[in-house]
Amino acid sequence: MGSRSDVGPTVNLLEYLRSKTQVDADSLSIPFVTKMGPFVDCTSNQIDSYFELLKPERAALLKKSISLSHELHSEYSDVTVVELAVEIAMVSVSLTVAPLVTGVIHVMANPKLSYSTAGIVESGKRIASLCRRFEPSFDQSKLCIKVPSTWEGLQACSKLKSLGIQTLATTLFTLEQAILAAQVGCIYVSPFLHELKALLDETYHDKDPIFDTVIMAQRYYEQHLYPTKVKACAVMTADEIMALAGVAAFTIAPNFVYELAKLHEPEESAAARSRFNIQAKQQEIERKDFSNESEYREAFAKNDGGNGEAKTKQAIDLFCGFQTKLEDLIKSQDKPRAE
Predict the structure, then answer these.
(1) Which tens digit of pLDDT belongs to each residue from 146-165?
(2) What pTM, to 2 d.p., does this model score?
(3) By the 8 A CB rule, do 189 and 230 touch?
């Protein structure tokens, strides 16, 4: 995608996008967030956290996280020292970025607990507790726990909401997941436009981006008056970002932020590329109730011949792999005492 030569006043594409959509940082890099802001939210997960904690400038934070995990383990004895150290490090690095954004920081619960409602609840409670401990003045309304969109994970979101802890439904690929996420009170859902594997493996190609699911989820919330917001993510090109201008929020990786910041085109041309402007807004989407587990599981399993379910499992498996990488990183820095 390059600058276009259509007649009419031109706009910077990053500025244009910010005028239509909440733009969030998909990075824990302080220099990036500082230079390319303003951003509203800052997201993180086990993948972002792993690569951020490998940086030399984060070595002291990692070392302190390991030390704190030993000091605090008696208070959080339902997890291992290593698991606690991962959560401490993820919280700590997110807190360094929190002052640089106007909205919330997103910290992902342990994905290895994706199929345990109780496990996700405890992970979310620990993360919230650690935020309060490390930053007593931190406004808890500025924290959101990212939870995998399994049935068990979404039930955990309901329980966390009752405790005053906000959640985002991640690894989401279907309208059924989006509907249930709104029912349980998630403040955000993050539909992955592409399979997560496509973003991590250059040899793997996902030819079925879920544009329609992103648009239908937002229309569903608008039509049925849910406060849940759609936060799109996992794009492969800047053109795909512009095709979703108008989505409530967008988590955008640094390379695409830099690319959009350099591009200009006529405003009319930019607006014409948004699928939110192309697809009929009048389309009514039937209200559904997925409170019944068996009915939800049946509908979810049938979506697109089971592709949504398979994509969700694949994404969770990949996040679990990076959870293990984080645990191994902790162990490598704490050999004498690691469990």
Answers:
(1) 999 999 999 999 999 999 99
(2) 0.94
(3) yes
